[in-house]
Amino acid sequence: SLAGHPVLSISERGTECSVGSMFCLNVGGPRITFEANLDSIARSGVRVHPSVLKLARRQATP
After folding, report:
1. I want to staple 11 with a disulfide (CB 3.0 to 4.6 A). Which of 21, 25, 52, 57 is the partner?
2. b/e string for 4-18 if b means 16 or more Cβ within 10 A?
3. pLDDT tens-digit profile of 16-46?
4. Is 24 helix (H, G, I), strand (E, B) or coil?
C-alpha cells in the first residue's frame, strides 16, 4: 500500500493532468514541456526543488 508515502505522479496531457497529477507532459513538436500542479504537489508530500518548478511552462492549479 502506498498510503502515507510520498508518490510522484506524471501524466501526459489529458484528463489525469487536470484531475490530480503533479506534473503533466506536453509532447508535441520538437519540444517536450511540462506543467506543474502546485495543489497536487503540496498534498503529495513529495519535495520538489524550486528550480524544477521554474522550468514548468505554466504552473497549473485546478
Report:
1. 21
2. eeeeebebebeeebe
3. 676 778 999 988 888 888 989 999 899 888 9
4. strand
